[in-house]
Amino acid sequence: MRTALEILFWLSAGLLIYAQFGYPLLLAILSKPAPQAPFLKDDAYPAATLIIAAYAEATVIEAKVKNALALDYPRERLQIVVACDGSPDDTPAIARAAGADLVLDLPHGGKMAAQNAAVEQATGEILAFSDANTMWEPGALKRLIDAASAPGTDYVCGRVNFVNESGDNQEGLYWRYEMWLRARESSLKSVTAGNGAIYAVNPTAYKEIAPVTGHDLTLPFRTVKLGGRAIYAPAARASEVMVPNISGEFKRKRRMMSFAWPIILGGGMLNPKGYGATYTWMIFSHRVLRYKAPFLHLVALITSAILAPESTLYLVLLILQLALLAAALIAPIVKFKPFLIARYYVLTTASVALGLVDYMKKGTEQILDEGWTPPEGTR
Predict the structure, then answer these.
(1) Rounded Cα gap, residues 289 and 336, in angstroms
(2) Angle 259-262-264 from CA coordinates, rounded to 5°
(3) Fold of the 42-244 domain
(4) What is the predicted pLDDT for the residue at 367?
(5) Phi and psi for 185 in degrees, rounded to 5?
(6) What does 270-298 look like in DSSP terms, one character per residue?
(7) What is the pLDDT of residues 114-139, one digit of tens each?
(8) What is the DSSP annotation of 68-100?
(9) Full-model pTM
(10) What is the mean pLDDT of residues 252-273?
């Protein structure tokens, strides 16, 4: 019995340590950041469609459309489409008045349904996507298309910088770490996830997906399965207002994970067919282990608690785990940076498991409705 418990502890702890430190170390050894894609000449940029899916975005949609119109891209080759998913406010009218080329006033069906409808109306040779609250730098679209022009590249995601330093959220710190990983994954093979704020897709590689899913997690691995590359272009930059506090970030991550679990369990991510050995390893290390993290932590905590009364080593290891939880608990009172990081880690890890609970308990319609709820403090 003791041996089995020790195996369980070291297996779970080992996988957690590998996912956070071992995998990044191996990526650093095996890859290097890719060079900047060469800029195309102005007359070589293709016709592009920028799709902005929106729900109740009356407060930000005018600024977003104006941001799109201000992009450094030939206006005659840029189609701006705002796909309104049954908007309950004046989002469609404001988008039209702001100068969008096409505004789709659609019945409510979720973000994916809105994006699919927009793709059907798109005239561009490349499809770009953004969120209504994300502001792109003037050269962002060109940098996406520069990267997408490389042979075999069918998906490109850019870099989002989170702004809002007024609260205690540590998402910016995590996001810099995540972008470091993606840069090296992109150089080595392909990214294992993108982001929904700034990305572009070759129309021939675009596939409709289920409403309770998302492009940011689905399109990269499906692109690889189809024989293409999904890459990261850090020169394509955008900014977005960050949730100000860790509690709000926990709610946002929990909602995101309720959309992610259908992809993980039934969307094909876990089927390595078409991946090749390198990408299979990357999906396991970056995605599978991340989604197993709350369950691995639970196993490590329980087994060390059982073993602690008879072992100084396991007692120390148990105390370390309890110290992490204690730091997370007192962080709202003692706003010490290490405590805030501990709270961010504990809550975002818990959000993975709770997102699974939400996915299993709630119906599709409820999840779709909640998916459009703006995170606190981001509008």
Answers:
(1) 29
(2) 105
(3) Spore Coat Polysaccharide Biosynthesis Protein SpsA; Chain A (3.90.550)
(4) 60
(5) -60, -45
(6) T--TTTHHHHHHHIIIIIIHHHHHHHHHH
(7) 999 999 999 999 999 999 999 999 99
(8) HHTSSS-GGGEEEEEEEES-SSSHHHHHHHHT-
(9) 0.91
(10) 91
